[in-house]
Write a structure and sequence with these properties.
With 436 residues, the protein is α+β, with helices and mostly antiparallel strands. It has 17 helices and seven strands. The N terminus is likely disordered.
Length: 436
């Protein structure tokens, strides 16, 4: 008896031609497996993964391309909810295996209907997961704090007991001091939810890292991050005069644990925090090119706070600067002026409101960018922690200034061409005419 056809949702109706085509491909795969080979053995399916079933038998190899097209086709119809691994698993074991081995095999239109039903289930799939990520070297007193899609919550006594009971802490030696979880209400299957969570938590931590000023060891510094991501110690053991051990540090070995709420209120005005939060909550499609550059710049500045060689950290700050304000517009004069001059001028107008401030920023960018160029071109140059501190603080200042500038200028500052045009306007505007 034919399977009953259910009424299609609006989403399914709009995608019906695509679903029909994908279902036809699934049926073709079933027919390929039914022709013989190891697919007739139940044990074979258990030994293979969705990525290897097409490689263990010559007669199945042509199915790899078909299978990949089906998987990607379905994912495009429900991008926010489906991970590649979950779609592959479902098609392999919930459809192909069953329809190859079941005693009462479906065929013809019944098989086609079943394939459509399998695809429609995935197209309509919707799920949400609450994912908690343990954060090291961070405290939280009082109520949770929200940043974008991440909510920082204090770990309870029960959380700690579960942590110890499951022996999670022992898997990362020396890092059992967890007081805060980053919680995300994540869309999709488990794979999709975990990927979404990691991206959102990484972004939130990048914002917190650049607020902590963890560039120089003798300031009020900290090392915050996902457990296992940040090394616990920056110490290097050495032997002095072949007799006794000595220890040197690439950074401080004693990390402060900032309290989230105090950190935010200390480093940011409420209006700045609201603008950053608003930016993070925007979807990728709704962000302008400049807003995306800003988030990428925050990421690289956050990366520069992680333990690494001094040169690597300095270069990451340089990448952050270039990401924030770089990019060649349709301006033939750019090649004449040079990249350093371009970055310095843009930085000066973005973050400086007075002549002396702009001249100071211009000078600082030239100084730091020369060091960056020396490193890139292999010249011998020592990068001290004070250099990292000065450069990092300058770029952090540019981040916060650009957040406010993008909000003020709106659609007039959507891409690099707009940025260059705005800077040119500022360059030739008399002081009394300047609005921003």
């Amino acid at each position: 008896m034919a399977l009953e056809e259910t009424s299609l949702s609006i989403k399914q109706e709009s995608n019906e031609p695509t679903i029909d085509s994908l279902a036809h491909n699934l049926v073709e795969l079933v027919e390929m497996f039914r022709k013989g080979g190891p697919a007739g053995d139940y044990e074979w399916w258990g030994k293979e993964t969705p990525r290897t079933v097409y490689k263990t038998y010559p007669g199945y190899q042509r199915g790899q391309k078909i299978f990949d097209e089906v998987v990607e086709g379905v994912r495009k119809l429900n991008t926010d909810m489906l991970s590649k691994s979950e779609v592959e698993r479902r098609f392999t074991y919930e459809f192909l295996q069953q329809q190859t081995l079941r005693p009462d095999k479906l065929s013809g239109q019944e098989l086609m209907n079943r394939a459509k039903a399998q695809i429609n289930d995935l197209v309509e799939f919707e799920a949400w997961q609450d994912i908690d990520v343990p954060i090291m070297n961070l405290l939280l007193e009082g109520e949770p704090v929200k940043l974008g899609y991440v909510t920082f919550v204090a770990a309870t006594k029960e959380d700690i007991e579960l942590w110890q009971e499951k022996d999670y802490a022992a898997r990362v030696q020396g890092i059992a001091d967890i007081h805060v979880f980053a919680r995300v209400r994540a869309p999709g299957d488990l794979g999709k939810a975990l990927s979404h969570t990691r991206a959102q938590v990484s972004l939130a931590l990048d914002v917190l890292r650049i607020l902590c000023f963890p560039f120089y060891p003798y300031t009020d510094t900290c090392r915050i991050g996902v457990i296992g991501e940040i090394p616990f110690s920056g110490a290097t053991p050495m032997i002095e005069n072949r007799k006794q051990f000595a220890t040197t540090f690439t950074g401080t070995g004693f990390y402060g644990k900032p309290e989230v709420r105090k950190l935010i209120s200390k480093e940011l005005e409420q209006s700045q925090w609201e603008l950053i939060n608003k930016l993070i909550l925007k979807t990728d499609d709704s962000r302008s090119d400049m807003e995306s550059k800003l988030l990428d710049g925050i990421h690289w500045l956050g990366e520069s706070t992680k333990p690494d060689t001094n040169r690597a950290r300095f270069l990451k700050i340089g990448v952050a600067l270039e990401t924030l304000l770089g990019g060649e517009p349709k301006d033939e004069m750019l090649q004449v002026r040079g990249i350093t001059a371009m970055l310095a001028e843009r930085a000066a107008f973005i973050a400086g409101n007075r002549l002396d401030a702009r001249l100071g920023i211009d000078k600082e960018v030239h100084k730091h960018y020369k060091k960056r160029s020396d490193i890139v071109h292999g010249r011998k140059i020592d990068i001290e922690l004070t250099h990292i501190d000065d450069f990092g603080i300058l770029v952090r200042r540019l981040v916060l200034a650009l957040v406010e500038k993008l909000d003020k200028l709106g659609d007039d500052l959507r891409n690099v061409d707009d940025l260059e045009s705005w800077v040119k306007t500022q360059r030739y505007t008399l002081p009394e005419e300047s609005r921003y």
